[in-house]
Amino acid sequence: MDNCIFCKIAAGTIPSKKVYEDEDLIVFHDIQPAAPVHLLIVPREHLPTLAECTDKHQALLGKMMLLAPKLAQELGGGYELTADGPAGGFRALVNTGPDGGQEVYHLHLHVMGGPRPWRGQH
Ligand code: AMP
Ligand code: ZN
């Protein structure tokens, strides 16, 4: 899509603080972080919203979800089960449509980790 900011980031024509990429996905830091670790997991394919995904996107969506804990762990916003019980953690969130608070109409999974990020803006 010509006018899509995340397509431009995926194509490398707009810079980003990239932390991961492969043939299907690109991941970068959110420009306005709402948590100590705030990543956006973005498919290279231009899909406007989660609601427009179909059965053929099942593997892609699964891949996005499974990447979230791995990257959160690597970047210091991870979850672990300790001898004292659960510790750390993150939120994985997909805003969908105007009432869902979506601003960029290219599917993306927010991963927000660090101490109690949900007490922040989101
Ligand atoms: P949403 O409201 O779910 O559509 O979220 C869009 C997110 O994209 C917001 O958290 C923005 O801060 C973020 N964002 C917008 N432009 C950029 C950019 N150029 N680089 C990184 N993050 C961006
Ligand atoms: Zn796009």
What report would you give on this structure?
The chain has 122 residues and is of the alpha+beta class. It has one domain: HIT family, subunit A (2-Layer Sandwich). 20% of the residues lie in helices and 27% in strands. The strands form 2 sheets. Strands 1-2-3-7-6 form a 5-stranded antiparallel β-sheet, with helices on one face. The chain has a two-stranded antiparallel sheet with strand order 4-5. A hairpin with a 3-residue loop joins β1 and β2. The longest helix has 18 residues. The radius of gyration is 15 Å and the shape is globular. The two termini are 28 Å apart. The mean pLDDT is 94. The site of zinc ion has 6 residues, from α1.
Give a quick account of the main beta sheet: strands, pairing sense, barrel closure.
5 strands, antiparallel
**Known CATH architecture:** 2-Layer Sandwich
DSSP summary: helix tally = 2
Which hetero ligands occur in this complex?
A: adenosine monophosphate, zinc ion
Beta percentage is 25-35%
Computed over alpha carbons, the radius of gyration is 15 Å
- CATH homologous superfamily caption: HIT-like
**Cα-to-Cα separation, first versus last residue:** 28 Å
User: Could you give the order of the helices and strands?
Assistant: HEEEHEEEE
Number of DSSP strands? 7
Number of domains: 1
CATH fold label = HIT family, subunit A
Helix content: 10-25%
